[in-house]
Amino acid sequence: MTPRLELFPIVIGRYSNPSWGENAVLPVDDEITHIAEQLAFFDAPVVDWEVPEDHRDDTAIMHRREEWVQRGSPCSLLYWAGHGFANQHTATLAHTHSPNPVGADGVSAAKIADTIARRTVATDGWHIVVIDTCHSAKFVQTLSPEIDRRPGTRRVLLVGTSGDGTTTLGRFSEALEPVLSGTFRNTAQITVWEFEHELRKVLPEAEVVLKKIDQHAVLKRRRGVPLIGPVDEVSELDAALNELTPDEQRHFLPKAQGAELGEQSWYFEGRETESERIATWLRTTGRGLLAVTGRASSGKSALLGHLAVQSRPGLRGALAAHGRLTDAPVELRPPDDCFDVVLHLAGLSSTGVIARLAADTGLGMPPVGEHNEQLRWLIEEITVRVRARESVTVLADALDEAQEPAVTARLLRMLADLDRVRVVVSTRANTREGPDRSAPDDHDLLDALGSSPRDTVHVTRSTEAITEYVRVRLSVAADRGLLPGSDDPAIRATAFAIGSSTQHEFLFARLTVHEILASGQLPDGMELDVLLRNTHSDPFASAVARLTRANPASTPVLRAFTFARGRGAPIAGGIAATIASAMHEDGPVTTPDVHTVLATAAPYVLVDEEQGETVYRLAHHTFAESFTSETHPTTRDRDAHQSITSALLDQADRSYGPLSPYVVHHLSGHASAAGRKGWETLATNTTVLDQLDPTMVSADAMRSAFGFYALPPAIGVLGASHLTAATEPAERQGSRQLAMARHTPTTDNGASEPRGAHTAWLVQTSSLRHRRIHRTIAGHTDMVKSVAVVPLSDGRTLLATGSNDETVRLWYADSQTLFSTLAVGFAANSVTWLGGKRLALGTYEGFVVIALETLDEW
Partner of 757 at 20 to 30 A CA spacing, among 211, 524, 559, 608? Predict the structure, then answer.
């Protein structure tokens, strides 16, 4: 069990000596409050100091230090605030009777070192000691060697907030907020190592010294599940959840389905018809798939987020008791606790979806291997579960924003075909649809889901819902003093005008509200007319221009969140700053710059979680159109990804510890998006390449390059090998060199490379018969006897494979992922496509023709 953290303040805010003048009173209690608010998310109580402020002399401080030594909790943050003194020879901290300057009449570094030594002998935990005074950097420089000369475990992080001289009170609380609520907002466990690393970035002039703390020292959030949504909404939701008692949080937020709440439920309006339709389906249907579809930006995510909250009686009851939520009528909400899995699919690969489904259904980690092997395992394991009379209900949002929408759609369809499995999924009908573009005639995503009209809920535009949403948001803002002089009739008129603008969807209303709040006043009639002639992307473009005028770093940071792969870019490790700097010609972007933009652009940036890290991306795919076109990448897009590839590769090469999870999983994605030049750049550093996730490298290479242009030898072998996913990191260099020796000329087999620091084995010389680079697709359990190409009407191509395992399998040719499995009951010796949806299967006894129109699998 992770030890509990205590906040132990030693603060001196009043000084009796007249020499202090106007500095005789410091607002130290405010700082304790600010720090406690941040640490409240880690369930860290404050150990109050009962001694009155004007009696905190050297003796009182001695007793307070002794109290800290005797505390039973193994982990603490000792926060010292007040005045400090330093000269060339010494550094001391003032007490309430100290003169100005303090000189030797203060608390010495030796005394604090004695206290730390005794505390670290008394427990085997770890501690953070923060000195928030003038000259605190010098004090920590003096304190550190004093600690080293004393006994004790010395598991302590020392922080002196000042630079070389004076400072202002509050630097620590100002730094703590962006680190805990920005860099690590959705990170369940933060190692003290990571905390120290990020603290250095936001306090660049501070003295930060990490003693003998190991990787097991962690700060653990009370709420261990991520909150996913626009940053401004998540901040408000965080505040609401923090009003709950620790017991309420532990009981009502026990797993990931409490995380993906989408639009704030207390601003959700309308949608009674759609809510009732979904709730009725969940009460009356035992298996199958329900598709929730509508125009881009119509509010599908808000609807599903609302239903997710309303399905949890403990959470909705607790939030209602705190005045944050109104219970929906029973007919408009799902059955209590009906969702076993809640997924936001944006940025997730198909293997990522499998991993999340496995984790949230209690199946553990999928076996190491390719998508098809993992999918087969997932289907088999869930089948076993439902046979044991355990039903599974999945709520999945934003299928159209997944990395591989068609593959993920097929995966959800396969799940929904199992007995006692239900899937509710929201998606646009077509991947090419946008809020300001007319909807195409075909419905490729709905077709991939295999949804029927009776199992499809259409979220259409609701003037009433949009109007009421705008009215509530503006009214709340007016009550908080954010719209001075705005009365109720003016708010209602503005809300009605926005709600009645039939060419705009819910997203436009949300963005327009934020721009109104940014201006601090309601638009007049002419301004409103101009505003309503905008497209959905115009409010965002206006916001970017406004933010960039105030802070030039805004555009490169928002571009970084646009070009990020997966579910977003982390701030930790300097990744977001590195990506932003790579696309910014006017100088580097720093991590503090990223935090500043995050605070000012909160409505337009979404916070998420991936690989245990907090990540950020733009809050809606429509925003990305201001910076890039993912559907038809331009030369500028490829150049941007090339710059990012080079920058991240350089950063990884200079890294002393493990690579950032983002680099491990997504550096190859940036190289892929950059094209041939990106792969060539990545191949120049095999030391970094060998540390990347081989499954991701292989998938990215197959998707973007395989069959289009020659890959560098070091990359090509990863695209060709289905075995690399199972290799340990220490074996990667040798495995890659062996594959290079087999698939490339012996003069370019990597044998001349130096041995990596952790390499288990490598190739010194080789003499192998050359074989063409290829890709092995795993899935059949017996010999494959035949292959046929099957073109689909939407332009995609399937491969049909017949095997002695008595199945015919259909695969997507471009991604080599499984489309369907037909159990035919005999060894399929040959497979021939007959046109349309018909295959001729040859057996040893004769031909059998199957009309695939009659099969649900097609």
Answer: 211
Q: What is the CATH number of domain 5-220?
A: 3.40.50.1460
Task: Find out whether 315 and 336 touch, Cβ atoms under 8 Å.
Answer: no
For 670, what's the count of Cα atoms within 13 Å in the CB-facing half-sphere? Answer: 29
CA-to-CA distance for 559 and 579, rounded, in angstroms? 9
Phi, psi of 697 (to 5 degrees): -60, -45
713 and 683 Cβ atoms separated by less than 8 Å: yes
Under a CB-based contact definition with an 8 Å cutoff, are residues 507 and 622 in contact? yes
Q: What is the pLDDT of residue 724?
A: 63
Which residues in the chain land under pLDDT 50? 1, 251-252, 254-265, 630-631, 853-858
CA 211, 214, 216, 220 torsion-angle sign: positive
Residues recorded for the chain: 858
Cα 639 off chain centre by: 25
Q: Which residues contact 582 (CB under 8 A, 6 or more apart)?
A: 640, 643, 644, 646, 647, 648
The CATH architecture to which 229-459 belongs is: 3-Layer(aba) Sandwich (3.40)
- Parallel, antiparallel or unpaired: strands 341-344 and 392-397: parallel
499/782 Cα distance (integer angstroms): 60
CATH match of 784-854 with 6.10.140.1670: no
Please tell me the distance from the alpha carbon of residue 795 to that of residue 811, in angstroms, as a whole number: 14
Strands of the 797-803 sheet, one edge to the other = 784-791, 797-803, 807-812, 818-823
- Which pair of structure tokens corresponds to residue 847? 């031909």
Residue 449 CA: distances (Å) to CA of 100, 223, 409, 653: 75, 34, 5, 43
Q: How far is CA 144 from CA 89, 148, 204, 522, 548, in A?
A: 15, 7, 18, 56, 42
Locate the domains of the chain by residue range. 5-220, 229-459, 463-535, 633-776, 784-854
Q: Which long-range contacts (CB under 8 A, 24 or more apart) does 15-20 make?
A: 15/83, 15/94, 15/96, 15/97, 15/98, 15/100, 16/54, 16/96, 16/97, 17/97, 17/98, 17/99, 17/100, 19/99, 19/100, 20/83, 20/100
Q: Give, for 520, the enclosing helix (H) or strand (E).
A: none
| Predicted pLDDT of residue 633 | 61
Cα(270)–Cα(354) distance, integer angstroms: 33
CA 145 to chain CA centroid, Å, is: 40
Q: In this predicted structure, what is the pLDDT of residue 1? A: 45
Alpha helices in 686-746 (DSSP H): 686-689, 694-704, 713-720, 732-743
If DSSP codes are grouped into helix, strand and coil, which group holds residue 769? coil
Q: Is 784-854 in the same CATH topology as 229-459?
A: no
Beta strand 288-294 with 218-220: parallel, antiparallel or unpaired?
unpaired
User: Contact at 8 Å (CB) between 733 and 756?
Assistant: yes
pTM given for the model = 0.80
Q: Provide the CA 292 distance to its chain's centre, in angstroms.
A: 24
First and final CA of the chain: distance in angstroms? 50
Residue 57's identity, in one-letter code, is D
Question: Among all chains, which residue has been given the structure tokens 């077509």?
Answer: 430
| pLDDT for the residue numbered 306 | 81
Nearest to 593, CA basis, from 608, 603, 578:
578
Predicted confidence (pLDDT) per residue in 467-479, tens digit: 888 888 898 888 8
Q: What is the pLDDT of residues 124-164, one digit of tens each?
A: 789 999 999 999 999 999 999 999 998 877 899 999 998 77
β-pair type (421-427, 392-397): parallel
| E strands in 517-661 | 569-570, 605-610, 613-618
Dist CA 302 CA 522 (whole Å): 25
> Looking at residue 368, what is its pLDDT?
72
The upper half-sphere exposure of residue 67, i.e. CA atoms within 13 Å in the direction of its Cβ, equals 17
Asked if omega into 101 is within 30° of 0 (cis), the reply is yes
